[in-house]
Design goal:
The chain is an alpha/beta fold. The protein is built from 19 helices and 7 strands.
């Protein structure tokens, strides 16, 4: 058995190969790309000798779970462990209390870590190419939504400083009609000159209702007296708002385009129908859940393992007579966001989910705690459906809780 530590940087990999006794057999600094991976295969093959074809004897530790390099290692048949950087830092402290750190030392540490503690580590999941494609588009889609929210907050802050009338006139700062009017009139003086027909045309293109009532109301707010800034400061703010408006227009376009890609890739996945049968999950949210869980059928040995990965299950800390149960604060932000949104939506989509949530609240759980417990229950249901290849059935999933609610 060979153990390999791979400490990667942007343009190179420091690699060390050791045997089962912890003795260093080889080390090297390899370039990124085909040349580097070929040299790594050669290094490992030289140590395996006559057993060079038996790549299952090789365990590799690396601090990432994605990218062409990792995919090449998996394709070669090696067992690859994606070591969390926090785990690596804690393990490094066991070997060097001084805090000394180098790329070569990290490669040695990672090799030793998979040699002694591989049973405690999670191998990189063997997700399908279809699931990987879903992950790529869902992650950039969600990232752009977050960027749009940040840009909208920056726009709100800027308007508050010099153009408070805009905040009173427009409900949604990232809406198409608002952005069109702000691009046309980004300062109080030009906004006050907007005609009813200009405002109405923008509202019509954005498919707003009651245009006849809304257009005069917006004009009245924009023409009312408000506190302002000196002309030169107003001009500077107006320039910044034009830039933010242009950014938000582009983000809106790309979010909409990527949503189509998310739905298309997700719709082609074999698990899509099972996931869509779950309460609270539509195409976009279901795609995010699939992307972050992956589709390797052997990754989660039980529903508990999936719940722990999702960070919906609680953590128990017991020492002496003291025992506390808390939420998991170390988690995949994208996954927990999708699961909590699913739980909230399921409150109205599923009577069983509502009964379960109400029961937690009746027991004294706060809103967030009850919602997290519901999300945890929904993860368990999803796990069961995926393992058995069956669609969600509300009567089966919530029979116990519905019977209690009826009683």
């Amino acid at each position: 058995m060979l153990f390999v530590g791979d400490d990667w940087a942007e343009d190179h990999h420091d690699v060390e190969v050791m045997d089962a006794s912890g003795r260093r057999l080889a080390k090297a600094r390899l370039p990124e790309g085909v040349a580097g991976i070929a040299r790594l295969h050669a290094m490992i093959g030289a140590q395996l000798g006559d057993d060079a074809a038996d790549t299952a004897q090789v365990k590799i530790g690396i601090e990432t779970d994605r990218g062409p390099w990792v995919q090449a290692l998996i394709a070669a048949g090696y067992t690859v462990y994606a070591v969390n950087p926090l785990q690596a830092a804690r393990y490094r402290e066991r070997l060097a209390l001084s805090g000394a750190k180098s790329d070569a030392a990290d490669a040695h540490m990672l090799a030793d870590m998979v040699r002694t503690d591989s049973h405690q580590l999670r191998p990189v999941a063997g997700d399908s190419a279809e699931a990987e494609a879903v992950k790529v588009v869902t992650r950039i889609h969600k990232t752009l939504i977050w960027e749009r929210t940040r840009a909208g907050q920056r726009l709100r802050h800027a308007l508050r400083e010099y153009f408070p009338a805009a905040l009173a006139a427009f409900e949604d700062l990232d809406a198409a009609d608002t952005l069109e009017l702000l691009a046309k009139a980004p300062d109080p003086a030009s906004a006050a000159r907007l005609s009813i027909s200009q405002i109405s045309a923008a509202l019509k293109r954005a498919r707003r209702r009651d245009i006849a009532g809304k257009a005069p109301a917006i004009q009245a707010v924009l023409r009312a007296d408000h506190l302002g800034q000196p002309a030169v400061v107003t001009a500077a703010y107006a320039a910044s708002v034009r830039a933010l408006v242009a950014l938000l227009v582009t983000l809106n376009e790309q979010v909409k385009a990527l949503q189509g890609q998310v739905e298309a890739h997700f719709g082609r996945h074999p698990d899509a129908e099972i996931i869509l049968s779950q309460p609270g999950l539509g195409a976009v949210l279901g795609a995010r859940v699939l992307a972050e869980f992956g589709d390797d059928p052997d990754r989660y040995t039980s529903a508990k393992a999936r719940k722990n990965y999702a960070a919906t299950s609680p953590i128990t800390r017991a020492s002496g007579k003291k025992k506390t149960i808390t939420a998991r604060f170390v988690h995949n932000d994208r996954l927990i966001d999708a699961l909590m949104t699913q739980a909230f939506t399921a409150l109205t989509a599923s009577p069983g989910a509502r009964a379960y949530y109400d029961r937690q609240r009746a027991r004294g759980a706060t809103y967030n705690a009850a919602l997290r417990q519901l999300a945890n229950r929904l993860v368990g249901i999803l796990h069961g459906c995926l393992k058995t290849g069956t669609h969600y059935d509300g009567a089966t999933a919530w029979s116990h809780h519905l019977n209690k609610a009826a009683a």
